[in-house]
Design goal:
alpha/beta; 4-stranded parallel β-sheet; single chain; elongated
Length: 314
């Protein structure tokens, strides 16, 4: 299975394997400048940057502008290239498939090899979580590690982009990316008439899904959409087929078409599903599963894709 579902479900079940969802849209983390960096405003080094969740991370010191970055997070990889730091990246993990010119390797973010990472002689490593003693090993090797767990809100995503900008000496570029992303999201939301609809966001054929409190659920919530999984006990619950049919969502979003070949036709053919409003109205939409599971600059693409569904342009 591709990273998208693993990234989302791992966030909920393993807490910080690739995420660490501990907040919600109603309780966004502090995104003040102190959370990103305590360096001087001119972008000079050394810098002190927060590694880990903005409200409970630890300070790390980056002595000079990184020239050999290893990214063990697809979201971090996308962010690095979006802010113009791509020429500072020497290696990215095996799941970092965007942009296509990123220096992809067989490095694993799930079972990181300290020896393999150190072999690239990085002066900064960015990862989603401290797995298998990664950070302590890199500390011993005197390599600073910036941990960026899964964003818990849109503001958290913006703050992480800014934190990557601080850590790489690309503050102005990061600020610009945040502003452009914010504007695109606002424009996409404004393009859709206000309404109240329910949805089922399918992560895989075993019917794992998201609630409105999850990160992607908050993106749907910008349009007034509500997940039928709300109240299920976690942000990424598994629903029974009977429950989905009974709750009868207005829209079904498929985040498992690329990885698993799930199509609208296969969904409609499931026992009992033909009675659902979304199936009857043909409102089953395949979504890009990477956009649905990453929290970097391409969240604007995801929001625009949702807007296209709601306006009938998809």
């Amino acid at each position: 299975m591709r990273r998208s579902f693993k990234a989302i479900l791992g966030t909920a079940v393993l807490a910080l394997v690739v995420g660490g969802c501990s907040g919600s849209a109603d309780d966004p983390p502090d995104t003040s400048a102190q959370d990103s960096s305590t360096s001087s405003a001119d972008g000079s080094f050394p810098k002190t940057v927060v590694s880990g969740p903005a409200d409970s991370g630890v300070d790390i010191t980056i002595e000079s502008r990184p020239k050999s970055i290893v990214s063990l997070s697809p979201t971090a990889t996308e962010t690095l290239f979006a802010i113009g730091a791509g020429d500072q990246v020497v290696a990215v993990d095996s799941q970092s498939d965007y942009p296509t010119d990123a220096p992809k390797t067989d490095l694993s973010a799930y079972t990181p090899s300290l020896e393999a990472i150190v072999g690239y002689e990085p002066d900064l490593v960015i990862a989603s979580d401290d797995i298998g003693g990664l950070v302590s090993g890199l500390v011993t090797a005197q390599i600073p590690t910036l941990l960026l767990p899964a964003a818990t809100s849109i503001d958290d995503a913006y703050a992480q982009i800014e934190r990557v900008g601080d850590a790489t000496g690309r503050e102005a570029e990061a600020d610009s990316v945040v502003e452009q992303t914010r504007t695109r999201i606002e424009d996409a939301v404004a393009s859709v008439p206000a309404g109240e609809l329910t949805y089922f966001h399918e992560l895989d054929a075993e019917l794992y899904t998201v609630t409105s409190q999850s990160f992607v659920g908050q993106l749907y919530g910008l349009f007034g959409l509500t997940s039928i999984a709300d109240g299920a006990g976690s942000n990424y619950p598994q629903l029974a087929a009977e429950s989905v049919v009974t709750d009868d969502p207005d829209i079904i979003f498929l985040a498992d078409s690329q990885c698993c070949g799930v199509t609208a036709e296969l969904v409609a053919a499931r026992p009992g599903w033909s009675s659902m409003q979304a199936v009857r109205d043909g409102r089953i939409y395949a979504m890009d599963e990477d956009l649905s599971s990453r929290w970097g600059p391409r969240i604007a693409d995801q929001v625009e894709a949702i807007a296209a569904v709601l306006t009938g342009d998809k």
